[in-house]
Amino acid sequence: MVWLLLIFGPLLLTVLVTMMLGNFFQKAGIDPAKAKVPFVNFYLWFQILQRSPLWLLLILIPYVNVILLIWLTTEFLKCFDRSDLKAQALGIFFGYAYLPFLNYRGVRKYVGRKRAKRHVALEWADALLFAVVAATIIRSFVFEAYTIPTSSMEKTLLVGDYLFVSKFHYGPRIPMTPLAIPFVHHTVPLFNTKAYTTAVKLPYYRFPGITSIERNDMVVFNWPIDPGGPNDSEGRPIDKKENYIKRCVGVPDDTIEVRDAVLYVNGHEALKPENSQYSYYVRTKPGMALPQNLVSELDISEGQVITPGEFVLFLTKKGAEQMALSNAIDTIYKRIEPKGVWMRQQYNFPPDSIHYPWNVDNYGPIVIPKAGVTVNLTPGNYWMYERVIEVYEHNTIHYANGQIFINDKPATQYTFKMNYYWMMGDNRHNSQDSRFWGFVPEDHIVGKAWFIWMSQSNTGKGIRWDRIFTIVHNIDDKE
């Protein structure tokens, strides 16, 4: 039902309001009775504005229709001698109430719009330009479409899910790289060239949101260590880095630790996403094959054959329990990296195999930086905060002869300028996340996963109808 409200809600509301504008129609020389005829009244509205009915097609574009109707309201007021700032502001913010109020109170004279008759091609160009501008504004400040490209969130979010990501929940960012080709992220398709220029750069600023990032929110963010493409020798700007989606499991000042593949936040076991996946070792009984009916039923999309009869499969807890009940299965257990065994993480985080023998299943504890909080810097924790201080907070930092230097001055403390977050995928054994590359700065946050508007299977099963127009629900650690 969400998509019906997004598309038809603004249109139906406008039609209803137009039914209460008989005095406006009469002043424009139109039979006021026609204002009470649904959709005919809306068509006549466009005639009063001397706009082509082709613009009606834009009403079918979610959120573009909201911007369009605000603009039509202000133009309508101008046709009736209401061009002053007060009237225009009331039209923008309270148009659906302000127009009926003026109709009841009394309508000024009809002054119309002095416009030359335009060719249909110009009308189309005008409508297209408005749609591009409106859609760009909406994409930057309201919501953005996003596709799940990898399986790091299986089975919570699936490869082939198409999401709307809300910008207003956490507050929209001002575009830091404003000169860019509309509707393209960082690379022009087919041409493999940059879709933006850094000739103009704006500082990071975020408008107030309706909520803050909470634990277990599914968050879209710019990948902090994105090295950039072949045409980005200095790396991409923050807002042009690759978009990632993970679950925020830690907020500023939280202490994160993973023990035997179990996540702990501030010393307490964190709530587990219902559909989180892990890597399992599976061995079938001699002479028996992996039950394909069960593979299909559990929608197992990841795994590999070790030897004939031995497999590594990525399963949810329920999926593993069902697999264990099969007569074909001899052995099944979760594959966990043992404590004290150092696994070289990508991007060398953490780098010290002697003092920090961490891996994806036994990691931490580590404290997430919080804006305004001062941390004591020691040779032991230097590596934890080196990238934060140098790359994200724009300082120089180095370690020499047992001493830490920040901006070429000896330092024993540092006060963080930004908030940071810890992101992890629900597919815990197949996710490149904060265990590999550390903290996510607040200026990299894009928005909150909102709802799925389309879902297409990548295994040839077509459209997943049961997932379309479903809200993305987050687990609540307050329950």
Beta-strand segment tally: 23
Helix content: 25-40%
The number of helical elements comes to 10
Radius of gyration, taken over Cα atoms and rounded to an integer in Å: 28 Å
- Content of β-strand: 15-25%
Shape: globular
Distance between the termini: 28 Å
Q: Briefly note the structural class of the backbone.
A: alpha+beta
Quote the average pLDDT: 84
- Uncertain spans, ≥5 residues at pLDDT below 50? none
How would a crystallographer describe the biggest sheet?
A: 8 strands, antiparallel
Oligomer: single chain
Which terms summarize this structure?
single chain; 479 residues; alpha+beta; 8-stranded antiparallel sheet; 4-stranded antiparallel sheet; 10 helices; 23 strands; 25% helix
Topology diagram in text:
Blueprint: H1 2-18, H2 22-27, H3 40-49, H4 64-79, H5 85-105, H6 120-141, E1 143-147, E2 161-166, E3 187-188, E4 193-194, E5 218-222, E6 243-250, E7 255-259, E8 262-265, E9 268-269, E10 277-284, H7 292-297, E11 303-307, E12 310-316, H8 317-324, E13 329-334, E14 363-367, E15 374-376, H9 382-392, E16 397-400, E17 403-406, E18 409-410, E19 413-415, E20 420-424, H10 434-437, E21 440-441, E22 445-455, E23 470-471
Antiparallel strand pairs: 1-2, 2-22, 3-4, 5-6, 5-22, 6-20, 7-8, 7-14, 8-9, 10-12, 10-13, 11-12, 15-19, 16-17, 17-18, 20-21, 22-23
Short description, anyone?
This protein has helices spanning 2-18, 22-27, 40-49, 64-79, 85-105, 120-141, 292-297, 317-324, 382-392, 434-437; strands spanning 143-147, 161-166, 187-188, 193-194, 218-222, 243-250, 255-259, 262-265, 268-269, 277-284, 303-307, 310-316, 329-334, 363-367, 374-376, 397-400, 403-406, 409-410, 413-415, 420-424, 440-441, 445-455, 470-471.
